[in-house]
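A.,

Following up on our hallway conversation. Structure tokens first:
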């Protein structure tokens, strides 16, 4: 059992998300060691990133929660989840929301489902499949640096529910970095950009953004 309230992992999480309960803090703090163990068996995170896990994976994934609060009963599809980002941290953050994490690489989904099992996360499932073959419809599609939006949107457009249940309209929530001017010119849907630098102090977030594409 993790002692909540001690350790750098706990403090950085509590700094940006002060209203988490003890179970959520325990799960978040277990992630770093758990991924270090799995990464030694199956390489799903680069060495540089595993050494900076809290900011480059945990906080980066949770940045979505700074701009949208997923309602109870909502469904979220994480496309190209890799080792489980942003889906696993978001599933911990929103335990009443259902998450489906998909990736075309089977060994990554193996890690995803083992992490879900070991942490006792009951509202998330990993599936070895492509985005366009994922079953069901979703309020939001989340993704992190998978591909350009002009390629992603055709894969997932038919997966997004038409009825909105959140303040932010249903669509894609894509974590991106750098200059997006050219990429967004190719998108015919309305997009809104949220700057992550206003939410976190770490230099890593200076050029990071969350793009919301409204697909209706």
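Then the amino acids I'd put at each of the 216 positions:
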């Amino acid at each position: 059992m993790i002692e909540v309230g001690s350790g750098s992992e706990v403090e950085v999480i509590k700094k940006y998300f002060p209203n988490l309960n003890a179970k959520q803090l325990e799960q978040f703090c277990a992630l770093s060691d758990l991924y270090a163990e799995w990464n030694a068996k199956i390489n799903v995170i680069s060495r540089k990133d595993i050494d900076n896990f809290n900011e480059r994976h945990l906080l980066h994934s949770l940045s979505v929660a700074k701009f949208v609060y997923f309602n109870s009963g909502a469904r979220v599809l994480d496309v190209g989840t890799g080792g489980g980002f942003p889906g696993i941290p978001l599933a911990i953050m929103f335990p009443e929301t259902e998450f489906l994490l998909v990736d075309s690489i089977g060994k990554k989904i193996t890690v995803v489902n083992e992490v879900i099992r070991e942490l006792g996360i009951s509202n998330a499932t990993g599936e070895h499949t492509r985005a366009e073959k994922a079953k069901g419809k979703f309020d939001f599609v989340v993704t992190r640096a998978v591909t350009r939006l002009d390629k992603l949107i055709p894969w997932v457009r038919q997966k997004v529910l038409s009825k909105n249940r959140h303040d932010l309209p249903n669509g894609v929530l894509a974590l991106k970095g750098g200059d997006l001017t050219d990429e967004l010119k190719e998108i015919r849907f309305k997009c809104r950009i949220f700057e992550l630098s206003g939410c976190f102090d770490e230099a890593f977030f200076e050029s990071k953004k969350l793009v919301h594409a409204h697909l209706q």
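The beta strands are 75-79, 98-103, 124-128, 140-144, 171-177, 190-195, 208-214. Curious whether your intuition agrees with the design.

B.
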